[in-house]
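Record type: ASSEMBLY
Status: queued
Input:
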Amino acid sequence: VSRRQRPPDADGVDALVLAARPADPTGASAEAVAVRVLARVAALETGGSSSGPSSRRAERAREGVGSRRFAKSFAAVLLASAAFAAGTSAGRRHDAGSPPSGPFAEPDPSVALAHAVGAGMRGDPAALATLRRGGAAARAACLDRVARAGDDASGALALFGRIGGVVGSGEAESLARAHARADLAGRVDLRRGIVAALAGAGGDSGVAALSRLLCASRFAVPADDGDDAAESEVVAALRDVAARGRPGLALRALRDGADAGSARAAAGTVSVGGSQEIDRLLSRRCALAASDEVAAALRAASDTARALVVRRAAAGDPRALALAAAARLEDLPSALTAALADAGAPGAARPDPTAAVAAIAAVGGAPAWRALPLLRAGDDASAARAASAAIRALPPAAASAMRALALGSVGSRAAPYLAALAEMGDEGPVALADLANRPA
Amino acid sequence: VATSDAKRRTTPAEEAEGATALLRAARRGDRDAFDALARRHAPRLVGAARRILRDPAEAEEAAADALLRAFSALPTLADERAFSAWIHRIACRCAVDRLRARRARAARATPLPDAAVDSRPASRPPFARLADAERVEEVRRAMDRLPPAQRLAMVLHVWEGLSYDDAAEVLGTSYDAVRVNVAHARRALFALLRRADGGAS
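Status: finished
Output:
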């Protein structure tokens, strides 16, 4: 209670300020203000002239407010629009059920709306402007055509995107349902359009629907080619959402998808969130962390993210080790060699020797050829055994690389490479003989 | 005449009862009831938004936003008796949101130069002409010269009568931030008004 009390007003400043408080409107002025405000509320509800942040807020509010009244007012706007009711319809192809004309015709609002959508799909700018004023009702009319999945469904979807505005959860859900319909599995363009419309929709509902699509169980199990492509498109759309300035929202959706078992979503989190998301995947012991998709994303990630994985692999994290091996990180062999050579490190903080050697072999190339001989000559017996086996499986190119390393090493440092050459099938002894014949 | 007689006969208790009935109907989704409530509260909401925004037209837009927001959030209203304060806070929040969105206008608001702030403690109340209209204008001008955060805190706390906690909630900041801003605003106003008085009073 004391926290809510004002501090003492010793200087009378508060009293002065209070005396200068502009008064609320009263009397006739109050009535006029109330009328203007209520008119403005009605205008906002009918998608009137408001613009900017306030209209977005109003649009959100509108999702749950007075839909019947809104539809009626919108129809009134539509029917009052001379651009469509008479002018633009003349001499053009009419949709089925276009409004009757003539002074005694009683126009049906829903028919007028359908007519406006048809005109909008044909590219009529006046129709598009009126539909934009209509907002949610106009979008609902487009969705109705999408749900019917006729030949004009893709066009209606494109019009839905052009109308814009904050898309409500119901609309997003309707689009997601259309995407999941089995009878639309072959309509690649339509499904692609749905994903694009959801990603481009104002508000959070579109992205939330994409997240639900990602979490759909069919993405977590081996899918057919069509669903595979759809999953890629959803992830790409979410990455696009992140690139267009809403990374937090996209990241949440991708995380949900990753948690539901989508490897592409897991890779998407790495692309969007970088090292923080790598850390999250590894900390949550996510089975997808070592997937090819995440490995590819890691290869394209920042140096910091790659260094993080190498550091965790060298510290004995088996998932980081598997991920680093799958991503073939060049810094991994030297880091693992140093970690295995560190006799003072506690067991839990050292990588498993056999797994480490396998990871180095998986990285391959010059970093592995440099590291394996050192491990073979090291103190760790199991690592040495595994390294010997790995050296025997190395390609011929490795022999010439080791010969070069031996030549470039001073004194006893050449010994591991010479021993490794001796270990290698036929190529090693040939290279050794070549070395022995050199005068130096 | 009959209407004015009826108005005269309405006691505050009956009025409160009528407002509660309207509110209950509005919560059930009766839009006409909400319109009646909105008509009753609109002037106060516009007044609050005007004091925050200093722009009558935008204040009406903020009040309309607030009414729409309030109607959609009516089911979440926990205490019907607190409706008036609740919708007032929503209007304040809408106005503050609009004020923040208007970065250009915020940039035009002249921050108080450091030199103008006199940090010496006041020995006695320096203002004698409280009711003077000229003085009122002086105080309003001084309010306008405050840095935006201080002015907002002062408007919400003193003019709108919000507690520090409520003002902090409206501004999306902490209790301490509001308290400090109000304290700084008082000190700055004191210095500004004393200077306007020529330091004599």
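Annotation: Residues 31-53 of chain B form the longest helix (23 residues).
Annotation: Chain B touches chain A through 55 residues (CB under 8 Å).
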